[in-house]
Structures are given as structure tokens and as C-alpha cells.
Description:
The chain is mainly beta. 7% of the residues lie in helices and 49% in strands.
Amino acid sequence: xxxxxxxxxxxxxxxxxxxxxxxxxxxxxxxxxxxxxxxxxxxxxxxxxxxxxxxxxxxxxxxxxxxxxxxxxxxxxxxxxxxxxxxxxxxxxxxxxxxxxxxxxxxxxxxxxxxxxxxxxxxxxxxxxxxxxxxx
Length: 136
């Protein structure tokens, strides 16, 4: 059955090349459109704009787990190899919609504070369109 109405964010996972990012805590999908200024003397003192180039990015964070095949070591390999990867955000419920596109990892940070868990944060930039697939 499809997820309807508001739902718990724990249900939404970030998938890289078809496998969920291990030990992740959260992710953000950002979709942007550049602003093209078309203000003229005919604008009556108001700024006029058009929507320009669009782009998207994903940032994620989680807990470093050296025993996970899809965690910090995997992310480091994506950076090192400059791998273009399929990125998908989904509840993994077959009737639910999802977002997906291709992109590259642009940042990986490992944080190891004293007397606390080791964490990672990473960022991806989209290469081409992000597609929203709607299911019913």
C-alpha cells in the first residue's frame, strides 16, 4: 500500500547504485533554478525574472561503520575514482513515488570527536535532471 499523507522520515532512504547508504541518519535533496534578471524600464520599478538553469544536490550524514560495504570506505572510493553514480531517494514501498538521477560525490568529511561516535557527512551534485517518479 502506498504511503499517504505525512510520513516518518525514517522510511525514506538514500540509495547509491541501488544499495541504501549504510548507517545514515539523514539526507537533504536540494533542487534549484538560477535567476535570470530581465528587468527593464518597462518593469515599473519592479524586478522581473525568468527561471534559468536548474541544478540539484544531495547531502547526507551518518555513523561510520567499518563493517558496512556502503559506508565511509565506499564513499571514499566514489571520490577517488570520480564515479558517476545513480542516486535514488525512496521509501522502497513499491506503490510510492521516488526521486532519482545521476551525480558525483563532491565532498566527504569524517568527524571523530573525543568520547563520541565517528560520523560522516557527504555531498553529491547532480549530473543532468533529477526525476520524480509518481506511482499510485
